[in-house]
Every structure is written in structure tokens, then in C-alpha cells.
């Protein structure tokens, strides 16, 4: 039963993410309008809505945590073929590999999931910290997760550390000039604006924290 309840919680995580993205959809697109094509909120909402639709049809008893992440990767990529789609699809596939054989969402599993997402996005987007992208959120969050596990922190403290690192990372993108993605086209004009991908990454991590920190 432990595995099935963990699978249900992971599906709940995606439902929480989808709700959070939908609620901030217009704001994310406004952020994107300052430096991109003003469609980031719409794109992310479509992607996560497709994921929750797919997971609603998933049998929690037989899927496994890895199977949920694999289904999420395919659904996101099918719904959002361009830009963010391949990044999160790769991220979720890496997370599926990291969760293979695991049947609980303890902080060690959550840390592996976050680190896998960060490395998947970095690998696919060929980016690094300071490029003014979602990696400025995911990489610090992954570091904070690994450190919290090493320090044997409580579940609540783990998520507090991860969320703080994510929020600080997103705020830092305001003082960066974009060098990657569509935002790089506007160069210096990207200064002063939070990266929309970083903003949506924070929403994802907050939704994860809210769903899993009771564990």
C-alpha cells in the first residue's frame, strides 16, 4: 500500500502544480511579454493540464512513482512540443530514472527527483546558473535538497530550505541579462525583469512543498 499512497501523492503534486500555474497563467505571460513572446503562462498551463489529464487515467496501484514521471514526460511533450516542452519532458524522464525502484516520497526520493529535474533541464537546454533561466531556480533548489538530506533535516525543514533557495534564485534573475533562449534577443532590456521560466519553476517547487511537506 505504501507505494500506491506515494503514487497518489505524486499525482496530487501534479494537480497542485497545474492549479498553481493556471492561477498565475496571465502573470507568467506578462513576465514573458517583457522579454519573450508573452506565451509562457499559456504554454505551461497547457502542459500541466495535459499531465493531470493523463495521470487521472493512471492506475495508482500499478503505475509506480517512476511510471507517473514517465507518463508526465510524454503528456507534457505531446501538449507542448516547442520551447519549454522538451526541457520539462527531459526533466521528468530523468526523474523517472531517479525514482526507479523507490516506493516512498521521503526527502531522499524528493531530493533525487529535484536533482534529476535540474540536471535534465541543464542537459537539454545546455544552460547553467546565471543565464537567467529556470535553471537559476532548479539548480539552487537541487543543491539545497542535497544539503538538507546530508544534514538529516526534517521533512518540513527540507522543503523550507528548497523553497527558499528556489525563491532566492528566481529573485536573482531580475539582476541578470539573458544569454539563453528567446529572452537573449532583447539583451540588456531583460534587466530588471524576473525570468518567466524561473517564476514558473518557483510555482512548481512551492506546489511540491505544499503537497509533500506533511510527509
Automatic annotation (TrEMBL):
Ranges of residues in domain DhaL: 8-210
GO biological process: glycerol catabolic process
PROSITE patterns found in the cross-reference section: DHAL (PS51480)
Domain of life: Bacteria
Assigned keywords, A-Z: Kinase, Plasmid, Transferase
GO molecular function, a single term: glycerone kinase activity
GO CC terms, sorted: cytosol
Database matches in Gene3D superfamilies: 1.25.40.340
Signal peptide limits: none
Xref: PANTHER family: TRIOKINASE/FMN CYCLASE (PTHR28629), TRIOKINASE_FMN CYCLASE (PTHR28629:SF4)
Name of the protein: Dihydroxyacetone kinase protein
Amino acid at each position: 500500500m505504501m507505494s500506491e499512497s506515494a503514487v497518489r501523492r505524486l499525482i496530487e503534486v501534479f494537480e497542485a502544480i497545474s492549479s498553481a500555474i493556471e492561477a498565475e497563467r496571465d502573470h507568467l505571460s506578462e513576465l514573458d511579454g517583457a522579454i519573450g513572446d508573452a506565451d509562457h503562462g499559456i504554454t505551461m498551463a497547457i502542459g500541466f493540464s495535459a499531465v493531470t489529464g493523463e495521470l487521472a487515467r493512471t492506475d495508482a496501484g500499478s503505475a509506480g512513482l517512476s511510471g507517473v514521471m514517465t507518463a508526465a514526460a510524454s503528456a507534457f511533450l505531446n501538449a507542448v512540443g516547442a520551447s519549454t516542452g522538451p526541457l520539462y519532458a527531459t526533466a521528468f524522464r530523468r526523474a523517472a530514472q531517479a525514482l526507479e525502484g523507490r516506493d516512498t516520497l521521503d526527502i531522499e526520493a524528493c531530493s533525487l527527483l529535484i536533482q534529476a529535474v535540474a540536471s535534465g533541464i541543464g542537459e537539454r537546454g545546455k544552460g547553467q546558473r546565471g543565464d537567467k533561466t529556470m535553471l537559476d531556480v532548479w539548480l539552487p533548489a537541487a543543491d539545497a535538497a542535497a544539503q538538507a538530506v546530508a544534514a538529516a533535516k526534517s521533512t518540513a525543514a527540507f522543503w523550507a530550505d528548497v523553497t527558499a533557495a528556489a525563491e532566492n534564485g528566481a529573485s536573482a534573475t531580475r539582476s541578470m541579462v539573458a544569454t539563453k533562449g528567446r529572452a537573449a534577443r532583447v539583451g540588456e532590456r531583460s534587466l530588471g525583469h524576473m525570468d518567466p521560466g524561473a517564476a514558473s519553476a518557483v510555482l512548481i517547487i512551492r506546489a511540491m512543498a505544499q503537497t509533500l511537506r506533511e510527509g
